[in-house]
Structures are given as structure tokens and as C-alpha cells.
Amino acid sequence: MGAILQENGFSPAEQIDEADIIIINTCSVREKPQNKVTSLLGRLKNMKILKPQLKVGVAGCVAQQMENDLLKGNVRADFVIGTDNIDSLGDIIDPVMRGERICQTSISKDGLSIPVFKRVGSPSSFTTIMKGCDNFCSYCIVPYVRGREKSRSSDEILDEIKFLVDSGVKEITLLGQNVNSYGKNLEEIIDFPQLLYRINDVEGLGRLRFITSHPKDFSYSLMEAMRDLDKVCEYLHLPLQSGSDRILKAMNRKYSYGEYREKVQMAKEMIPELALSSDFIVGFPDESDEDYEDTLNALKEIEYETIFAFNYSVRPGTSAEKFEDSVSKEIKSKRLSRLLDIQRGIMAKLSDAYVGKTVEVMVEGSGKRDEKQFSGRNRQNKVVNFDSDKQYKPGDFVKVKVKEAKPNSLYGVSED
Ligand code: SF4
Questions:
Q1: 201 CA distance to ligand 1 centroid (A)?
Q2: Are 93 and 1 in contact, with CB atoms under 8 Å apart?
């Protein structure tokens, strides 16, 4: 959206109160971020009183869900752009600046095509390979606000990645609600592992990551690609959500914990140094103490480097809306904090295991006060701060000997 605005003659504002256009890009996967949109619109209303020419837009999933309602009422936006309508920003911006109020939220039935666009200079960048979801997990709003799965052609993806690499990008993260479904609705015959093989051949690219994989579609051929391709990092985000088969069934996740564990064990054997991360929902309707204990046991058994865990919140329009939200707020909070406590211990243990090892770090920046301090991430996506007498710039790859494990990062010294 920033690139489209720049093509239309706008430039980035240094401060929010200097802006002529503000776009709130939104997420509706949980209740809290959705509520934040309304409160931010309320704050921007006061800004609009002082600066009547200011235009405020809402984009993303909340825009797709609330549509015209965001143009109405007391706290209202000037324009609304749905999840399939980012391209239309260039067409609507002139009429919006002239005072029209516009809502664009149609979902296209065509394939997915995204023009290559300039990004803010950074050695890491994202490339969308597919969007939408056909899985309909019972708690999730994504299939309703993002539509069905659509993939981008492999040529278009390759063109974008080559363009990014030519502009200095060294690390690409491929994005999609379920990257393992890549290629399903394309005319060309290609699946996700095959796409990884093609991208791995791009000269100048240093690292390749992807997010998110659905456990039911995490295949042996993807494990082989992760094992065999030098640029694909040893990092896998594989959301488990719950360790209880009863809850997984109610969530419509289409795998059991046993099936999940078997795949993870195979992946760990095939891909040395593999780091795992996961999402968890705590307090799903009817989650009993036993179900919750199953989740804790799974957490301890799999040993994730990172987790993203949240209390369940009802998403209007999902099939879980009809379930009684039976777990009280207090119990949800207690369960969440115990789960996070256990995870802190696991994380500390896994971080300690890096001490004494040499890891590859891609430099992201240097210390503001000390020019001999640098920071970056290892292949497992862990933040590594290190000292060196040499000078490095963002995007350089450095071998770092880890000396110390801190709660959220590692510390070391360069070996080069
Ligand atoms: S697979 Fe992910 S995006 Fe799709 S419905 Fe399930 S949770 Fe939502």
C-alpha cells in the first residue's frame, strides 16, 4: 500500500500528525486486535477535527468483515479496502482525497497476481505465494475474510524474488495462510516443495523461510526439501493449537496429536538443528482440565523454541460461535500463564544448548552506541547479539561463537 501511494505522488510521513492519509491495516483473527481498530479510529477522529483534510482508511481483515459499517456512525473511516482489493488503492485515492467515501471489499474469483513493488531497504523481505484458506478450523475467521486458497504463479514469485535479491535482499520469507497448499489451483503443475527447489536456485539469495504450514499437509517431500536445500532455514512453524484429540476434533484441525508428533519426530530426525514454533489456543469451549493437561504434555514433549499462545475468543461468523464459551476468563488466564511459564523453562533449556556452538548470523544492524556490537538472527530465527572488531553491514553472514544465553536472545563473538 505504501508503494502504491508513492507511485501516486505521496511520500512517507515522519510523524503520524504530519500525514495526509493514514491507513490502519488490520487483523481480525482475535478479538483484541479488532477492538484496537475501533479505539484507534476514535483517537484519529480528534486528529481529523484539527486537520479536516486528513483521510483515514481501514484495510485488511477487519475491513473485509465490517465493510460499509466502517464508513458509518460516529467513529468512521473515509475508505475501506478489503483483503482482495489492495490494488484498487491507486484508483480510489483521488476520489477519496476529493471527499468521496469508498468501500471496496469484493472478493475476486480470479487467480492471485501481485505486481512486484519496491520495499523499504532491509536484508529480509516477505513474498506472498498464496492466500486464503479452505480448511475452516471452527474458531477461525480467515476463510471468511480472506476467501478460498489462491496461489501465485511460480514465474511471478521468482520474478519478485530476483527483483528483491537484486535490490540487496538476502533473506526471503514466503507467506501464505497454508503454504503447503501452494499450487493446488494453478494451471501449472507445481507444489510447495517444488517451488522451494526453484527458489533455492536464485543466485545471491542467502536464506529462505516460510510461514505457515498446516500440520495435516506437512509432507515427507517438504521434509526432504528442508533437508536437502541449503538456503532453506532449519525453522518450522507448525501450529498445534491443542494437545487434546477431543479439542482438536472440535477445532476441525483434521489431525490427532499422535499424527502431529509422528511428523515432528520424523522432521527432527531428518533435519538436524531444526527449531520448531507453534500456536496454541487456551480455553477453547468445553476444554477440561484433562484436555489442558494434554496440551501441557505436548508442549513439554515437542519442546518448541517459540510459541504464540492466546486465550480463546469467539469470532463472530465462525462455526465455533455456536459452542458455549464455557471456560471462564479467570481459568483461561490461569491456564495461559501456566503454559507460558512452562514454555519459558523450555526456551531457557533450548537456548542454553547453543552456548559453545558456532552459529551463522545474518547481520540486521549494529549497536547505536558501540560500533563493535552487532545484532542479527541465526538460521533458527533466534536473535543473536555479538561483538566483533570487524565492520559488518546488514545482510552480511557471520560465524558467531555463542558465549551466553539470555532470556530472549543469545550473545557471542564473531569468529571471522
Ligand atoms: S488453517 Fe489456519 S487460516 Fe485456515 S482456517 Fe485453520 S487456523 Fe484459519
A1: 30
A2: no
